Structures are given as structure tokens and as C-alpha cells.
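Page 37, continued from 36.
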């Protein structure tokens, strides 16, 4: 009897940023979401953004577009300017130079 060996594609390890605009934004989103007591799944329902995408945003793996910033702000019930201001004030914020 011959057994078929199934080769699974190696999943690329995501690099978790320690600083930067994306990390700062993600921390702010996670903080506000936690303060509101809502889950990533609830934020998904409010924004229409995929739950795994929200997770990536919060970890700083994804860079949000302007449209995404507005959707997240609406889902959290805060002005988009609040997210941007708090991101810039974050200890993780590093202004991009490139």
C-alpha cells in the first residue's frame, strides 16, 4: 500500500514590529477596543473588516489605508482624528523617514 505524503506549504513567519506608525496605530486600536469591552469579532461586525485583518492591524503587521482608518474609527465610535493624534503620541510611534 502506497501512502501519499502531503506537503504543506511553509507558512511565512510574520515579523512583529516593535515600533513604527503601524505598531503605534495598532496599539491604539487595541487599547480603545479593550476599553470598550468589545472583541475583534464585534469590531469585525461593526466595520466589515475581516477579523484576521483586525488582528494584523492591532499587531502592527498591516498598514491601514485612509479608508480603513475611517472604518475602524466609526466601528470604535471615535473621530478618525482621535486615532491619528493618539497614534502620533504613542511611545511606539517612529516617524517614517523613507
Amino acid at each position: 500500500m502506497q501512502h501519499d505524503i502531503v506537503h504543506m506549504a511553509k507558512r511565512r513567519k510574520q515579523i512583529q514590529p516593535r515600533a513604527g506608525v503601524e505598531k503605534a496605530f495598532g496599539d491604539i486600536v487595541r487599547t480603545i477596543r479593550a476599553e470598550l469591552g468589545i472583541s475583534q469579532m464585534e469590531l469585525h461586525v461593526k466595520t466589515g473588516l475581516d477579523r484576521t485583518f483586525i488582528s494584523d492591524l492591532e499587531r502592527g503587521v498591516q498598514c491601514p489605508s485612509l479608508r480603513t482608518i475611517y472604518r475602524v474609527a466609526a466601528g470604535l465610535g471615535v473621530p478618525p482624528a482621535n486615532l491619528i493624534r493618539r497614534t502620533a503620541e504613542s511611545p511606539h510611534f517612529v516617524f517614517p523617514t523613507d
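The helical segments are 21-36, 40-47, 51-59, 66-76, 80-89. Flag for discussion at group meeting. The chain has a mean pLDDT of 86.
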